[in-house]
Design a protein that fits this description.
single chain; 200 residues; alpha+beta; 434 Repressor (Amino-terminal Domain); Nuclear Transport Factor 2, Chain: A; 3 domains; 8 helices
Length: 200
Amino acid sequence: MTFGDKLIELRKQSNMTQENLAEKLNVTRQTISNWELNQTKPDLDQLKSMSQFYMISIDELVDNEMKSIRVESSSENFSGGRETNKMLLKIKKLFINEDNSSNRKRKFKMYLITISIIVAFIIIFVATTGIWTRFNANISREKAMDIAVSHAGGGRANTPELDWKIWRWLWYVEVVYDGLMHEIYINPNTGEVVRYEIDR
């Protein structure tokens, strides 16, 4: 008797339809059908739920399947570790549903959603902060100095530094002119002065 046959027998003894049993075990009717047709196997949690529902141990639930594995393996030409591994793989398939494509599809969808969210976040961050400007400024340091001195009306400028201000990278230049400190922020792509302060 296969595992699927055992499930059919237990379900019929309980006078239940596949729909009724699916509802009790919190799975779909198609899942019950796949188990009974030996197309897929329940995972360990599902086996526990079934054993509790039918009030039998998991051992009793899978006993016939285990016997068939033992008979099959003993009838083979047993040549040590290789055959043992085959038997262990068959037992593993009883408890871990490796054919459960719906679980794989669900996990794959979750990975895609997670990756999409991460990529969207990176795109939004890069688009709103202009972070590429930090490495690819169109306006050179020398040009930023010239713009700052011109904007202040003259004077001596320090070496410009790229600074994170107003949610973007800007050239920050200090210009000393007429005894005053002029703080000037310049867009590194356009050369536009976006902020100008005089420290008195």
